[in-house]
């Protein structure tokens, strides 16, 4: 007597979940955050190695990556290469897919990596310029987007905390938005109308000098990601919309005490003096 086993269909393979991929940060954002967070902590403690690394990064601001031999060996480039390899291992189970790629796909991959490198290079060197000689406050702070930071600058404020609330002199002044002829707004518009990455880099550098003078921070991880997407013509519009939307968004800031405001005011300089530092 023989027994038969009922035929059953094999269970369908469980598809690989994308949840980790959708949650993980982009390569430019991850590298910028890792580099800036580590160096910022050391720089504010006056750690000699961090101070030297920040000075080296600051000297690279405005220079093309790899074109200047002095940029060879910058530590964030090592981090970028390490993270790319880690992502490749995770996405392809340790195999090397490059030998199966067509010439066209390889070219697209090289272009993507170049965009990543330019975005991280600009973001990290701008932070080094922003943090220069500032030990009491971090100039990389999460959630301080470019639009938010520039709006605070355009409103004539410094730091990240507001003065204690005072009744406005008149209701019309309290409700008035940014002056359309404001020099800060004009500079911000020029950033948005940049036609190539070199122009964008120069105009961002000018704005960062003004933000440094006012002790207003930026989120450099977010900026690196936006700079990466800006280089893709199909994504530029989204980046510009994000900058403009953040410029007009309302933000809650905690009031500062008088001592903090006095200290902030004593360290601020005129915008012209800040722009004079562009030649440093």
From TrEMBL:
Residues 85-96 have a biased composition (Basic and acidic residues). It holds the Pfam family CRISPR_Cse2. Gene3D superfamilies: CRISPR-associated protein Cse2 (1.10.520.40). InterPro entries: CRISPR-assoc_prot_Cse2, Cse2_sf. CDD domains: Cse2_I-E (cd09731). Residues 1-29, 85-115, 157-179, 251-280 are annotated as: Disordered. Residues 1-15 have a biased composition (Low complexity). This is Type I-E CRISPR-associated protein Cse2/CasB. It comes from Streptomyces echinoruber.
